[in-house]
Amino acid sequence: xxxxxxxxxxxxxxxxxxxxxxxxxxxxxGTQLLARLGADVVKVEHPTDGESGRGAQPAMTDPxxxxxGATFLRNNLNKRxxxxxxxxxxxxxxxxxxxxxFDVVAENFKGGTMDRLGLGYADVAAVAPRVIYLSISGxxxxxxxxxxxxxxxxxxxxxxxxxxxxxxxxxxxxxxxxGALGDIGTAMFGVIGVLAALRHRDVTGEGQHVDIAxxxxxxxxxxxxxxxxxxxxxxxxxxxxxxxxxxxxGWFILQVGREHQxxxxxxxxxxxxxxxxxxxxxxxxxxxxxDDVIRPALAAWAGDMTKLEACSALSAAGLAAGPCFSAPExxxxxHVASHRMLVELERTDGVAEPVLIPGxxxxxxxxADGPDTRVPWxxxxxxxxxxxxxxxxxxxxxxxxxxxxxx
Length: 407
Fold this sequence. Notes:
Layout (H helix, E strand, L loop, with lengths): L16 E5 L6 H9 L3 E6 L13 E3 L5 E3 H4 L5 E5 L5 H11 L4 E4 L5 H4 L4 H7 L4 E6 L15 H7 L2 H5 L14 H24 L3 E6 H8 L1 H8 L10 E7 L2 E7 L2 H10 L14 H6 L1 H13 L4 H10 L3 E4 L3 H6 L1 H5 L3 E4 L9 E4 L23 H9 L3 H9 L5
Parallel strand pairs: 1-2, 1-6, 2-5, 6-7, 7-8
Antiparallel strand pairs: 3-4, 9-10, 10-11, 12-13
């Protein structure tokens, strides 16, 4: 699936330049996706410490002796790093000078932070009116009662209603049930906004501010919470079979939500009489008798099968099912390998096993998949970027470095 024959076409975002003052995951995942589509992404970090994602655990040691945390490693392929102190007046001036030479300026600090630094949309637009300015924050830059609240993915996931919707009676909510859904989901909306704004600029010649709130993104992605409530649903149990069942070597997930699917299931597991059983006359009845009738029947049917064999049989019958894979099973899966969905990053601290980073899920027939370049070390490309973009010579760079403005 590398699609190397498509390299002759180039990448769709070749020539697009992105200046990203970013940290952790909500923006870095999005800019990494844009970089995979051809954009030149320059990452602006603290001159000495780098961005906060580098401090995540687990971590490896980079060639400079600094930690490179997992959050950083999986979100920063194909980028260059420059170190600028944005709180220094000369650092602010450098950032604004760079902004005018980029198509997109992106940031994911707490709402209002860039304005306080004199680097908000109005400041950048004053010197670069054609720039697309992407902001990602917990609650956006429009008025909000939560303005100023710091936010990580589980915070906005909880506020979307999905934790309470899924919480079992008497049990606390289970945070982060799908990894950093709040981060990656928000990042994808940010990518959509940037692509739309670039197209809009092609038509109008105008730049604009793309403001993405993580909470807004999660309300959109957990749509069933409010939609079902508005339609009178008060019992959060789904009126369908959507649960885990056990095979000989582990668990698999099965979803049956329509009457014709229930009939197929009944026939497959050897209980065709369920179709005429009054207990199963409604979808609510499927749920009511899931544990006392349906689950034991599926356990008996799948008891001598592997979870993959059970799912293959269910799929052959037209039913949607999938095995619950462990990490080693995902890594070894033929589909994952053939779709190049795990990219190896060689470690720099003597550990033989590489770091595995998710690949690009956007497959295009006339765009080559990869190659990916490794993550940058802190401020690794400062001189390169400032020299090629602003024409700064070695003396000017040394002066800025001595003043602590750049790394």
